[in-house]
Amino acid sequence: MCGHVFAFRGRRGDILKVLWFDGQGLLLLAKRLERGRFVWPQADSGSVAPTPAQLSMLLEGIDWRMPVRTDAPRLAA
Predict the structure, then answer these.
(1) What is the C-alpha separation between 43 and 62, in angstroms, rounded?
(2) Which pTM does this prediction carry?
(3) Over the stretch 31-77, which tens digit does the pLDDT of each residue have?
């Protein structure tokens, strides 16, 4: 109930579950990727504290170690 977000990745890396207390109750959010895997930061002490940018990319299924643009800009006609 301290405002922290707790995220858990499945063994295969294709599912992510997040626990968060929003002030009224505990939320359980789950996301499964049809293709690809969630890239998890290396845990040195048994837990990981990603930056807000890393967490955002993790939740979107983007490899935070080497982000790439998914849609190239188009030339104006």
Answers:
(1) 18
(2) 0.65
(3) 888 888 887 777 777 777 778 888 888 778 787 777 766 566 677 76
For residues 9 and 40, is the Cβ–Cβ distance under 8 A?
yes
CA distance 41 to 69: 20
Query: Can you tell me the distance from the alpha carbon of 49 to that of 22, in angstroms, rounded to the nearest whole number?
Result: 19
Q: Helix, strand, or coil here: 71?
A: coil
More confident residue, 55 or 3: 55
Long-range contact pairs involving 58-61 (C-beta distance under 8 Å, separation at least 24): 58/7, 58/16, 59/16, 59/18, 59/31, 61/31, 61/33, 61/36
Question: For residue 7, what are the contacts with CB-CB under 8 A and spacing of at least 6?
Answer: 16, 17, 18, 19, 55, 58
